[in-house]
Amino acid sequence: MSAFNSTIFIDKCQAQLNSCAYYQKLQALPKNQRWLTYAGLFLVSQIIVFGSLYLFFGRIAAIGLFASVLAGLATGLGALPAAFFKQVSNNLFNGLLGGAAGVMLAATSFFLLLPGMIGYGNELWPDKGLWVVAVGMLFGAFFLHLADNKLPHIHFNEDPGAHTESLQKIWLFIFAITIHNFPEGMSVGVSFGTGDMHKGIVLAIAIALQNIPEGLAVALPLVALGYNKWKAVGIATLTGLVEPVGGLLGITMVSVFSSVLPFAMGFAAGAMLFVISEEIIPETHSNGRFRIATFALMFGFIIMMALESLLG
What we know:
Layout: H1 3-19, H2 21-28, H3 31-57, H4 59-79, H5 90-124, H6 129-150, H7 167-193, H8 197-224, H9 229-240, H10 243-256, H11 261-284, H12 290-311
Helix pairs in contact: 3-4, 4-7, 4-8, 4-9, 4-10, 5-6, 5-8, 5-11, 5-12, 6-7, 6-11, 7-8, 7-10, 7-11, 8-9, 8-12
């Protein structure tokens, strides 16, 4: 989608929000009262969501959604350095992204693909587990391909500083990160939906580790463009909070339709592999300093192997 069409899309969304009567009433409230109202609405929504999950799907499902929330909040943790520094070295940033890619590769292999094929796949679809998971992988990658082409955003490996002509273009970059967080949250939800809390917790830890450099990638450009540093951290945190939405979808889908579990695990794995190959690894190799990122990827993979061994 062209930058012109993308700007029109965002302008329309902003206009619709501004025309909403409830939004206008909230904006008219005093600042403290407005934020207390937001906090109250958020608390009520969480009580409803977590209570419904616990009643209909059980304790593990509720814990799974909570884990996906914590994994999403790790984006805010990664954004914190932006409150103190306007930039970090390329070597450090590439190392963080490379380590995140290694963590996600290991998590995808150990906690989605192998259980999907060997465990649940062959159990639910005798002798066909491999093919069900493989089809799910392709669908997951194709879903991200469509999102990448149809939804307005700037690619993760583009320099947001080159798009400072309007704030809308910066928000397109942020939207790209938000799109890619959805399948990560879904993978956590799918893992908990299997009823295996161990795999779900380890995968949530992996997602959280991977979200840290993404939060930094969102917050630093905003600070550099003059945004309030804590507002930039808050925006980065919000990009990670799409993960509980994916987590909720993964949990409920697998819990209600258990026969689609191998397909769902393959779908989540394919979507994450697409993000790793399409966005994260090219970013770490974009400025020629790729050797650090390569070794960081290996260390990230080793960390997940060790975590699986220790917790297993």
